[in-house]
Amino acid sequence: MSSLNKLRLLHQAQKNQWLKPSELEELQTKKLRSIVKHAYENTEFYHKKFKAAGIHPDDIRTLNDLSKIPFTTKEELRQQTLESRVSRGLDLSQCHVTETSGSTGIPLKIVYDEAADDFSKAINLRSHTENGLKLRSRWAVFGDPHHYQKPRWFQKLRIFNPIQISVFEPIEKQIDTLSKFKPEVLDGYTSSIRLLAEAVEKNDIKDINPKVVFGTSELLDPDTRKYINSVFDVEMIDHFGCVELNRTAWECGEHAGYHIDVDAVVMEFISDGEAADPGERGEIVYTGLYNYAMPLIRYSIEDVGVPSDEVCPCGRGLPLMKLIEGRSDSFMQIPDGRIFSPIIWTLIMRQIPGVGQFKAIQERKDLIRVLVVRDQAFTEAAAGQIVHDVQEVMGEGIHVDVEVVEEIQKEPSGKVRCAVSKVGRAI
Ligand SMILES: [Zn+2]
């Protein structure tokens, strides 16, 4: 596909947001029928699943018909081979393959082909451009160096071209890079942005003045939002999503909730097996509408949200959801004064073979317990590697106890938290 065509995808995504809700529903229904049919005809997993449930793609005509299809759980996907979950004949060497973090379970391989990746990037850029990102903005993104990718189509055009800041770098180095770069747009893990804001305030740094700050709602509690807003004198824009489906909802400048990307996903909120009412908490269940390489139909991500029937004052047709707030006691401060954001755990543990779910608990400033739900690939060596990798990041003075457990409890909110500190920290 030419780059021009890809820019057209972005243009189309920008247009879609202003469609009327009824027009968006029509578009969504059309895409739903198509992906359901594709999944049934081209993946072994969904073919069998539909057969076992006694349903045929022709039974799925409307969004309401979706409820006829049983949920797809992570556990179920884990038991499949990758080949049975992706489309027949897919050339994996031409695909973009990532893994889920493991904070909510054993990592899963997620496959996007080029077309899905292009579409996903266009959807992602939509919220950025709507909130102030320009073609040639100086844009800095906090990321995981393990996941730096080759330049994207739009970056080859030298537009929408961010620099990457590794979250593993010491804060001083991040500040040094950003002071020189002078980002207009700051983007990435909310926890990393919070740590940056704290350092900027503490050291009275004048050179980092983004006009727009985007966070991913790994952890956005009201205090963190207020704090980041006050340090950078912005109204930060929060994003929501997951590794499997990328960005799925976002805030506009009105901050009335999160606009759901309904031209990319169907997002259901399920409470006791039924659709949750507006304002009621429900487990999020996704149907992806564009990834024909690895379809996900009624996929439960084990996260919680609240559907909303409010209309956003901005006038966009994309419907709204609300989020359950995160908590800020996931940061860990160690004896040398450094503070680590919870995302560190996800990034470290993703590299360890055989780790299912995990949770890191800071018991004392210098003592961290790492609870691990193991799968077959987990070995003594993997436990040793966890200790090694954590000490490499935090220093050898930190004691790390790895404990294999049967299960990790969810929080009362329904969320799984991968990191909790029982030690207060100085800001
Ligand atoms: Zn809005």
Give a short summary of the structure:
With 427 residues, this protein is α/β, with parallel strands linked by helices. 31% of the residues lie in helices and 24% in strands.
Task: Please outline the helices and strands.
Blueprint: H1 3-16, H2 21-42, H3 44-53, H4 74-78, H5 82-85, E1 96-99, E2 109-112, H6 114-130, E3 139-143, H7 153-156, E4 163-166, H8 171-181, E5 185-189, H9 190-202, E6 212-216, H10 222-232, E7 237-242, E8 246-250, E9 258-260, E10 265-271, E11 274-275, E12 282-288, E13 299-307, E14 320-323, E15 332-333, E16 339-340, H11 343-349, E17 355-364, E18 367-374, H12 380-394, E19 399-404, E20 419-421
Parallel strand pairs: 3-4, 3-5, 5-6, 6-7, 17-20, 18-19
Antiparallel strand pairs: 1-2, 7-8, 8-9, 9-14, 10-11, 10-12, 12-13, 13-14, 15-16, 17-18
Helix pairs in contact: 1-6, 2-3, 8-9, 9-10
Zinc ion (ZN) is lined by residues 252, 254, 256, 259, 312, 314, 316.
Characterization of this structure:
With 427 residues, this protein is α/β, with parallel strands linked by helices. The protein folds into two domains: 1-326, ANL, N-terminal domain (Rossmann fold, 3-Layer(aba) Sandwich); 332-421, 2-Layer Sandwich (GMP Synthetase, Chain A, domain 3), CATH 3.30.300.30. The protein has twelve helices and 20 strands. A twelve-stranded mixed β-sheet has the order 4-3-5-6-7-8-9-14-13-12-10-11, sandwiched between helices. A four-stranded mixed β-sheet has the order 19-18-17-20, with helices on one face. Strands 1-2 form a two-stranded antiparallel ribbon. β6 (212-216), α10 and β7 (237-242) form a beta-alpha-beta unit. The longest helix is centred in the N-terminal third of the chain and has 22 residues, at 21-42. The chain is globular and about 60 Å long. The mean pLDDT is 89. Bound molecules: zinc ion. Zinc ion is lined by residues 252, 254, 256, 259, 312, 314, 316.
